[in-house]
Structure formats: C-alpha cells, structure tokens
Amino acid sequence: MKQLTGILFLAKLLMIYNVQAQLPASSGASLSQGPDTLKKKTAELKAVEVRTSSAGSLQQSTRAVTVIDARKYYNRPVTTLALLNQSPGVRIRQEGGLGSKADLSINGISGRQVKYFINGIPADFLGAGNRLNIFPVNAIDRIEVYKGVVPIELGSDALGGAINIVTRQQLNNYTDAAYSIGSFNTHKAVVNTYRNFNDRFFLQAGAFINYSDNNYPITAQVPDRLGNPVTQKIKRFHDRYRDHQLNVEAGIRQRKWADLFSVNASYYGMDKEVQHNLVMTEPYGAVTRNERTFNAGIRYVKQELLPGLGITFYGNAGAIKEHFLDTSYNAYTWDGKVYERRIAYGEIASARTDLLFTTQNLVGRLQLNYTADSTNTFSFSVTSTYFTRKGKDTIAENYYGQDVYGHRVRMQKHTAGLAWQRRFSPRMTSTTAVKYYWYHASGFTIDNMVFHPASQTKQQLGLSEAFKFDLDRHWLIKASYEYATRLPEDPEVFGDFSLVRANPSILPEKSHNVNLMARYSRTVFTAAVNSFFRLTDNIIFLQAAPRSSQYRNLLKARSAGVEAEASCQLLPSLSLWANGTFQHIINRSKKENTGNIDDRYYNQRLPNKPFLFANSELQWTRRNLFRRQHTLQCWYGINYVNWFYLYWSNDGRRDTKAVIPTQWVQQAGLSYALRDNRAALSVEVHNLGNARVYDNYNVQLPGRAFTLKARIFLEQ
C-alpha cells in the first residue's frame, strides 16, 4: 500500500489526468468503460448536433473548457459533485452530507460567481431539484466546465466560470434504472427512459428519489452531568434529507417547420432538517426547510430557418413554494438533548418563524446562428429572466404586529451577446464577442423591525476575445481575455428570509480575465496546462455570523494560478490520471476603501480559500474476464487539499490561528458489468482512511462511507 501511495503521490506531482486508452485527448474526468452503445440513424445524428455540441468539438473550440463524460460513470456509485471535484482547477466545499449546501470554485472564483446551467438554461430558475449537490449522474450525458470566457449562448452574467449540465441525449429506445444504498441510511434511485413513435414523435421521462439520515459521527462539546463541556464523539441527530423529482418531455423531430419542437414539465419536492448554523457553533433540533417546485417549458430548434440561419428558443415558467419553520422554544446540545426551555425566541430568529414564501420565475432564451461563408460565423443570443417572491409568516406577524415578508420583491435580468467566429487558416481560429447586462431589483430591508423599501438598477457592457492555434496534430494552444460582469443574485440582494439578511445596495462584480492553455495529445498519453489571471472588483462575499449573515462587497482582489492535468495508459488494462491546481488570490483593496486604519491586509492572500489541491486515480479494467461482454473494473483515488487559514495570515500568533487542516481523502471501489453493461453491480468506499474532513472551518463532513449500487440498462 505504501508503494502504491507513493506512485499516486508522484502522479499528483506530475499532475497527470484524464484519458482513456481508446480515446486520445479524453474529455472526461475518469477512465471508466462507457455503458451505452448508441445505434443512431443519420437523421438521429443530425438531431444530436441540433441539441448540443459534441465533447470533441468543445475541446477543439477556442474556449477554455473541460468536458466530463458522465456516461463513463453510470455503473459507479459516484455523485455529480465528486465528478466535478476531480476536474482540474475546480474545488467543491460542502457543508455536510447528502443535500447540504455546496460551494464550487473555478480558478479562484467561487460561489455565485460561477453560474450553473441545465442544457444551457440558468439552473437558479429551475428550483432545487436541478442543483449539483443532488442531480443524479445517470441523468447526465456530460458536464461542461468553462474557465475564463463564457460563451454567449449560455446567456448569463458569469464572472469567468460556468458549469453546464447536458442531460441524456440518447435517441434510441432505452430504459435505464439504478438504485444505491449506503452508509448513514442513504438511499438513491433514478430511472430514465426514451421512446420514439412513428419516427417523428418522442417521449422522454425521468425520475429520481434521494433519502439520507445524515447521522454520521462528529466530535463536539457535550455537557456532562455536572454541566461541564466534554469532547465526545456523537452522531448528528437532526439532519435528515429527502427529495424526489419527476420530469417529462414530449415532442416531434424532423418536420418541415422544425427540426425539434417539444414541451416539458417537471415537479420537485424536498424536505430537509437543519442541524446547525453556518459556522457549526449552535445545534438545532427542530428547524426545518421544505420546497415544492413546478416547471413547464417549450423548446424549438430549426437549423435552416433561412439559408445559413439557424434558430434555437427555450422558454420556462416556474413556481417555487418554500417553507421555513423555526418555532421550538427548546435549546439543544450536540447529543440531541434539551438543556433549556426558553420563554420566547426560536432557535434562530428572535421571534419564532413559520415562514411560507412563493417564488415565480420566467426565463427565455433566443439564439440565432448565421454562417456567412466557410470562414465566418455570427451568433446572437439574448436571455431574459424575471423573478418575484412574496412571503407570509403569521407567527412573526402576531409577535411584531406586522408581517414584513408580505411585501413582494422583484428582479429582472436581460443578457444579450453577439459573437463573431473567424477561421483565419486551417490552424488558427478566433472568437470575438460583446455582451450587454441589465437588471432591476426592487425589495426591502428590515432594520430593528422597521420596513424600508429599496430598489436598484444597473447596466454593464462586457467583451471577450479568444484564439486557438493548432500547431500540429499533437499540440493545441488557446488564449483568451474577457471583461466580465456578474450581477447580484436574489439571495444576495434580498437574503433568504431566515439565515441571511437583505442587502439591496450591493454592487455588481467586475473582472478582467486572462487564460492561456496548452494541450499535448497522443494515443496513450495526454497532458494540458492552463494558466489564469484575474483582477476582480466589488467581490461579493457572505459575511457569516452565528445568527444573521449578510452578503457584502469586498472591494478588489487579484488571482493568478496554474492548473495541470495529464493521463497515461500504463498497460492495456491499467491507466492513471491526475491533476493539480495552485492559485494565489490576494487582496488589492487600499485602506481608504476598506475602513482599516492601515494597509496591513493589502497584498495579503485572501483567507478561507484553498490555494493548493490535487486529485489522482489509478484504474484497472479487465474485459471478457470470465465470459464475453463481462467487465471487471477496480479503482483507487486520492483527493488532496493543502491547509489554509480561516482569517488573515498576518493577524495573531501562528500557533493559535484558526486553520482548515490538510485533507487526504482516499476512495476505492470495484464494479462488475454483465452483457456489455446491460446490468452492473458496484461498490465504493469513500474516505477509506476515515480521516476527519473539513471543507469549511469547524464544519465536519462524513467519515468513512460505503455505497452499493445496482444498475439495469435495457435498449431496443
């Protein structure tokens, strides 16, 4: 084991990552066997091109993008967050087990600076059922990770990073079902199906269910019989999570007036117990959240509306009903016992809370593509979103004599982009783009239970330039620049009516982004290096507090770093990949802009941000091991994160500073697939060494966990 660990550590230092023996320049984040053999007719292949760009074309585009092929993981008991966390330059910080909040960073930007999309539609407007922390891998075709320039067709105000989940694109009839059971009473089930009728009409449906007690062991201070705090190992007692989703899409293909026209609808339900505050200093025993989401939408695609002109349109209307409950007078200790009965107050709010609020969303995206000739292509995209929310809390109304949450909050956003792609030669291509952002927000703040109306309107221009150079058939070089803007989101402006206070005066973030990437590809070896530089102003961050947090602007920061990835097919059945990232994010705000008495924090590394992390995996795959079309696969991986300070490094004594410690997390597993992946059984052990793991200071993550997954795939 020591020798194997040494090999993997060397691989981490070499930053080797991401290839499959049969796929040079692989776009995925692993080396698993693909489960589905697609049998498409020519017309169906055309339909695939209509719906989305292929992974290979994205890798060869001017964009700095990593593509993770989720199909390779259908047999594995892996989560979407785990796949993303293995990607170079990406780091995910989670607050707990299944269903807990997750923060993702790409090349130094994080939180809401990174935008999430489902098939190009902003996921924020589709409800919690489309969030990365619960979206099932078996419902995904691939994950696109954009770094630097975000393409105009995504139609969003990302600050230099975006995640686009492309759902299952298989067009032949199939049914795919999987069920997994794991530690902490965790259960997950997912099914997807697709049916063609009369070569024109199709029906696609999917559903998933997740459940977990999340009662993993933690170490906490618990009073003994004399009331003195004693460090004990106990189980989380109020962190149960469950959700379910059903989605259906029906439509037609290859008609004279449309290559694709469809209608879709979805329903999502979620119930979650809240265990503690943001910094895990207060346990809760009765606080809960739940959500119900309804969505309906249409899609329209026509590649040749006019000669050379194609059109794509998507529209969606949604309603979200959320309920936040904090009505208990009890005060709990970490072992779940009641140590005090209050005469007033809830566990979080100064008044108890029974808050029900309703959100209504509208989102529409129109994209036009025009091919002028063999060397010039123009694209235009506009995305418009509308958000409104209104709450009701009868308990707070009785306590304060008014229900301030009954006032409606609204937000509108419009993002437009125009891009010109020119091919100068067979080896050189450029993409030039301009963007326009506009938004208006109207809402309120509450200070000492006094209602204050507030509103804000902002607009901003952005631009980008990207180049791609094919030096030869092995070397590819990309360079890009973008002046990007990110407009505030509704939780940052209006809060969440519970743990986060409103801040309607918050300003948009702005950033200058530069990326330079080089990739080398051969049959059994591939490697890439990406360097980045960002100068960001008006950074929005969450100032955490035990009871009431708030989003605010930190004025300016500079980010620079490098990420490297490579992979190697060591033997016909043995492969190795790894990646590593170093990023240096420093404060560039002067004292006159921060309110400090001196510039002691100027040019200091920003605290509470990982700056060095890496991943690696060794995989052995044996096909036709016992019988033909049977495959056995084993893997062993390591995730590494270097320690970092919670607060500024130049404050206080080194031996007393709060530190998020170094993380070494191992995982191992095996899967056995029958009849060319028609059925598969797999098992994985996460956190093999049962290390105490923290993504955020003092917030403990699950220890060693086992997961068993069974999958059946039927194809016609």
Architecture blueprint of SSEs:
Layout: H1 2-14, H2 42-51, H3 55-59, E1 65-69, H4 80-85, E2 90-94, E3 102-106, E4 109-110, E5 115-118, E6 121-122, E7 140-147, E8 161-167, E9 174-182, E10 186-197, E11 201-212, E12 217-223, E13 229-235, E14 241-253, E15 260-273, E16 288-306, E17 309-326, E18 330-332, E19 338-341, E20 353-371, E21 376-393, H5 394-400, E22 409-425, E23 428-447, E24 450-470, E25 475-486, H6 490-494, E26 500-501, E27 509-521, E28 525-543, E29 549-571, E30 574-587, H7 591-594, E31 612-623, E32 631-641, E33 644-645, E34 659-660, E35 663-674, E36 679-686, E37 694-696, E38 699-700, E39 705-715
Mean pLDDT: 85
Helix content: under 10%
Q: Please tally the β strands and state the result.
A: 39
For the record, the CATH class is: Mainly Beta
- Work out the strand percent: over 45%
Task: Describe it.
By secondary structure, this protein is mostly beta strands. It has one domain: TonB-dependent receptor, beta-barrel domain (Maltoporin, Chain A, Beta Barrel). The chain is 7% helix and 55% strand. The chain has seven helices and 39 strands. The strands form seven sheets. The protein has a 22-stranded antiparallel beta barrel. A five-stranded mixed beta sheet has the order 1-7-8-5-6. Strand 12 (217-223) and strand 13 form a beta hairpin. It is globular, with a radius of gyration of 25 Å. It starts with a helix and ends with a strand. The model is unreliable at 1-53 (pLDDT under 50).
